[in-house]
């Protein structure tokens, strides 16, 4: 089923107009380079492929009650989002190179940039990056361009899934990357303040951090600025419905993973990375940016702007190699934010925090289960210590129908018994109670 | 048209949150809370639906208009792939699940999709193994160059340079530079392909690799491709295949057989996943056997008992380049597309893509200046004639006039090595009738350029806006309607 319209007769007619045979059209490829092996299966029709993929999808379990987070969350998604992003005028278009026929995409990106600015409390945002991890990497490179320095301090309470990515990306580059060990689950203030010096380009922190802990980095921003360094904050956009914005902390570059804003978990992607910053740094920012302007008749219109930073013009001198953005995902998140609105996002964030507080209390009462950290300031995730290895308990609970959380030993030494539990607005008190009972049962057995 | 923020009415709501029995008060100290609620629009669901429906109607897409945007392969995106991507077993699967003990067994379907796509892409390209992690073509390029760097570091080679042809996509030099290499440009010859003598002059022990698109951005297949690969291999360099133009040769020839060591594919081009208005895409990277050990962590392996698992023990790997397994939803769509086309279908893809491009080339040759004579592959490059230029016409005017005739313009002003270029890529999914009407429109525009150039310069007049003032957009920057100072 190759989706080709032209009939064999039409193909013949076209070949006659060209004056060549189909074989001759490929005569520029030397014979010895043509495939002798092309062992692909026979094509399937739509009914066959749907049956096959339905069976494959069915082998994946989505029936587990999900307390798994770690930066990727099971939030409620209003139906209107899919209905709107499924309009093929959006999803079958490409990068808006021709503004006159792309005003839909362009205005939506401008609105997305505005929504991200409002959410993070920053002046400007770009049209999105690939994901939350590459967004941190791009922010780090941006900070080094702005400051002309190459030392970066990152606390290990930043999502370890992203920290290992940053280690890969920086391996061949001249970057002095210093990781500070968290202090009882919070960013290690003392160590960070000691480390900031005249060669520091940026401090990278996360709020709420990987352990769910919330913080106010105003003091670290000031200390960084005093030494001419920047503060980069990675954040969880749902939490910004209630939490202090990075803008209010005087952060310089704000990034994060946008999956929680109306995107399916989809086994890891597509997601989107968002990035916002202060206006003074916009020319150093990577990625597409849409600006408002007027057309020849004075009508409001939108265009890609500041393209002189980008690879298609600057080639090897570009601010980044990024070409496209995650436009359709950015559109989904804009529609999500528009539907939730001012009160909806705040209510969602409060519900997450409330459900998590309830779960924390309920699960901590189980004999042998203890909070890992002293502080009770968390958003919708927290760490518990179990009386035995967390990986075993999680495996046991999977059989009982729960994705109970993420065992932390994979990324943190000495946390073999620790589990990160995440609670979104979708988890009811009843489900939390069921998890508590199952956990209790699992620990006794 | 108003912005969504300008339509906001205080107190209006679109969504009722399922608060249930939860208390409304939260116990978080004030220092950690934002001073004011986020200033998001307050609208009804219908307000939001109307707004975005209206925006969608201001767009051209493949479903609404012929979209011959060169090097972007704007082919039809089959609807069934969207349906399958929405199956709950795929759409609602948490990516951390297979990283939990026992969790892998609950994601066997998804892991199988990743593994089988790997095998299919291996057969299509002649490579020995793929990573699905890169989230776009340019991300694949960066990954590929990181693999090349890991190869040299492992061998103790001290190499500093990546060669890139002057006709390359801008992402090639940008990716190489970001990976820490010096970029040296290789000129094209008068036939539009890489100048072999110039290449020989630039090859030395410092060369870590060469990045090449084949056929190139002029739609030309370089008959010396194997010799080029050999020359680079002679200095222990590696050759990188930018798969942007694979649609031209899929099923006919394989980069692995030409001698390429590293390949990236744009699933949103050759394998028909939607372009989404500028992403999400996917850029899987394939390598030859000696480079398999450098692929990013993790990869999906098939165990002896027929189950699938993630492999993390990869000591020489370049590490993690994505949080999980790439843009799974996009890989899934490409997998479905390849299954539907099968062997015969994929061969027909390149044949018809090349047929359509050559048909356009022959038909437009009398009216526009063809950049390079001879057979083209999936795209052809024209520029305006001297007579048009004498009338003050630019390629941009031709592009804008096409919009009024209901066509998305070709890629313009790229490749930069052809002045006033127009790169036309019709793809295989377009019918002769559509292509004939495009040709007719191009001919009428060519005539109008000479008879009434002012009319051309005024185009487009049928769109929601006319030509926007891009200079003023950059000078009087307005990229957000928010001011944190209130």
List the helices and strands and how they pair.
The complex is a heterodimer of chains A (445) and B (486).
Chain A (H helix, E strand, L loop, with lengths): L7 H11 L3 H4 L20 H13 L6 E2 L12 H7 L2 H4 L11 H18 L3 E2 L6 H16 L3 E5 L4 H11 L5 E5 L8 H7 L4 E8 L10 H9 L3 E6 L17 E5 L15 E5 L12 E5 L5 E5 L6 H4 L12 H38 L5 E2 L9 E5 L4 H10 L2 E2 L2 E2 L10 E5 L6 H16 L1
Parallel strand pairs in A: 1-13, 3-4, 3-5, 5-6, 6-7
Antiparallel strand pairs in A: 2-8, 7-8, 9-10, 11-12, 12-15, 14-15
Helix pairs in contact in A: 4-12, 6-12, 7-8, 12-14
Chain B lengths: L44 H12 L22 H7 L2 H4 L16 H18 L3 E3 L5 H19 L5 E5 L5 H8 L3 E5 L9 H7 L4 E7 L11 H10 L3 E6 L11 H4 L3 E4 L19 E3 L11 E4 L5 E4 L16 H37 L4 E2 L9 E4 L2 H5 L4 H10 L6 E2 L8 E4 L7 H20 L1 H6 L11 H6 L11
General description of the model:
The complex is a heterodimer of chains A (445) and B (486). Chain A folds into two domains: 65-74 and 342-444, Aspartate Aminotransferase, domain 1, CATH 3.90.1150.10; 79-335, Aspartate Aminotransferase, domain 2. Helices cover 38% and strands 14% of the residues of chain A. With 445 residues, chain A is α/β, with parallel strands linked by helices. Chain B is α/β, with parallel strands linked by helices and 486 residues long. Chain B folds into three domains: 11-56, no CATH class; 82-340, Type I PLP-dependent aspartate aminotransferase-like (Major domain) (Aspartate Aminotransferase, domain 2), CATH 3.40.640.10; 351-466, Aspartate Aminotransferase, domain 1, CATH 3.90.1150. Chain B has 15 helices and 13 strands. Chain B has helices at residues 45-56, 79-85, 88-91, 108-125, 137-155, 171-178, 196-202, 225-234, 255-258, 328-364, 386-390, 395-404, 432-451, 453-458, 470-475, and strands spanning 129-131, 161-165, 182-186, 207-213, 238-243, 262-265, 285-287, 299-302, 308-311, 369-370, 380-383, 411-412, 421-424. In chain B, strands 1-7-6-5-4-2-3 form a seven-stranded mixed beta sheet, sandwiched between helices. In chain B, helix 9 links the parallel strand 5 and strand 6 (262-265). In chain B, helix 4 (108-125) runs parallel beside helix 10 (328-364) and helix 10 packs across helix 13 (432-451). Chain B is globular, with a radius of gyration of 25 Å. In chain B, 60% of the residues are buried. Classes of the chains: A alpha/beta (445), B alpha/beta (486).
